[in-house]
Structures are given as C-alpha cells and as structure tokens.
Specification:
Blueprint: H1 2-20, E1 50-56, H2 61-77, E2 81-87, H3 96-107, H4 112-121, H5 123-126, H6 131-141, H7 146-153, H8 156-171, E3 179-182, E4 185-187, H9 193-202
Parallel strand pairs: 1-2
Antiparallel strand pairs: 1-3, 3-4
Helix pairs in contact: 3-4, 3-6, 3-7, 3-8
Length: about 200
C-alpha cells in the first residue's frame, strides 16, 4: 500500500514538473550572452565568479522545486555566486503574471527576497485562486505599505518589467521553466542538487 501511495505522489510531482516545461518557443539558441538583468539583491559591485540567471514562473511547481537548489547554491558559495531571477510567466498559469508583478512591487519596498520566498512557499494555496488578496497578506506580514504595494502590483510599470523579461527570455531561447544560464551559457536542468552544483563549480575556474 505504501509503495502504491509513494508511486502515485511521485507521478503527480513528475506530471507537474513536465507541465512547467511546456514549450512556448521553438528558438533553441544557447550561444547568446545574457543581456541586461534585474538582480535579486541590490549590490553596488558584483564580484562573483559565477552569475546564474534563472527564467522562472512563480506558479510552476518545477520552479518551486529548483528554488531550493538556488538557495543552497548561495549557502554553499556565498558571494562567489550571483543569482538573477527573470520573469517568464507561462500562458497556462493564470496567476503567474500577477505573482511576477507582486514580486516586482515588493522590490520597490526592499522586501523582494522575503516576498520571493513567500510566493514559492505558498504556491499551492494562491494557485487555486484569490492570488491578489493572498499577496496583499504577504505584504502585510512583511510590514509593507499596503496601498503602495497594491497600486504597484497592478501598475503598468510592473507589467512592463515582466513583459520585457519574458520577451528577453524568448530571444534567449527560453522555452520552458525554469531555464538557467550560467555565465551566459544555457544549461540543461539537473535531476539533483549535487549535479547542479557540479556544473556551477565547473565555471569557478
């Protein structure tokens, strides 16, 4: 019985991950360098040996899974790794766009990292609906200015940022989420953190 349940749960996870990999572009060019990026953490000077750029969809279960890999990278390598997150909301995820706008709105109040983590932690809840209200709740829990946050979340400026990221991703050959570039090179998603870490280490020299 236990084996049957475990297999069933694994199948659901695998199906969800594949769902986030749905192609939306046939461009597979991997030689283009990463262009202008919006950094996760404001840093006056980037001295990292490795820059990891991630094109991500907040409603994608696979992106939530790989988020733990990125967190572990920062713990293992510290300032030697610079992480950049770019928005790539998929059409089949109805709340991914507003999630991206909400994340950008939190950045204006210096709460991006905390908000970014809350979005992924609560993904299963807000993916069912009532996403904006839930995001406002996150903002309130982080002592943000709620009026400012709500206005920014629904503003044309935040939408332009998200649309620009997605357009850039398509030009870079992104056709699934998450998609990673390491020092400008597109890589295949790995099955384990150790495999992912090994690839990052190969760029350290």
């Amino acid at each position: 019985m236990k084996k049957t349940v475990h297999f069933f749960l694994f199948s659901i996870i695998l199906l969800s991950t594949t769902f986030c990999q749905k192609a939306e572009s046939t461009n597979t060019n991997t030689s283009e360098p990463v262009s202008s990026v919006a950094v996760d953490q404001v840093s006056p000077e980037i001295t990292a040996k490795v820059t990891v750029v991630k094109y991500s969809d907040y409603q994608c279960p696979a992106c939530a899974h790989y988020y733990s890999y990125v967190k572990q990278l920062k713990q293992d390598f510290g300032d030697d790794v610079h992480v950049v997150t770019k928005h790539f909301p998929l059409n089949q995820h109805p709340y991914a766009q507003v999630a991206s706008r909400a994340a950008e709105a939190s950045k204006k109040q210096g709460k991006y990292n905390e908000f970014h983590e809350l979005i992924f932690a609560g993904q299963q809840q807000w993916s069912q609906g009532n996403a904006e209200a839930i995001f406002i709740g996150y903002a309130r829990s982080l002592d943000m200015d709620i009026d400012m946050f709500t206005a920014d979340m629904n503003s044309a400026d935040m939408n332009r940022i998200v649309v620009a990221d997605r357009r850039e991703g398509i030009e870079m050959g992104v056709n699934s989420t998450p998609t990673f570039f390491i020092n400008g090179n597109k890589i295949e998603n790995q099955n384990s953190y150790e495999e992912f870490k090994t690839i990052v280490e190969s760029y350290m020299d």
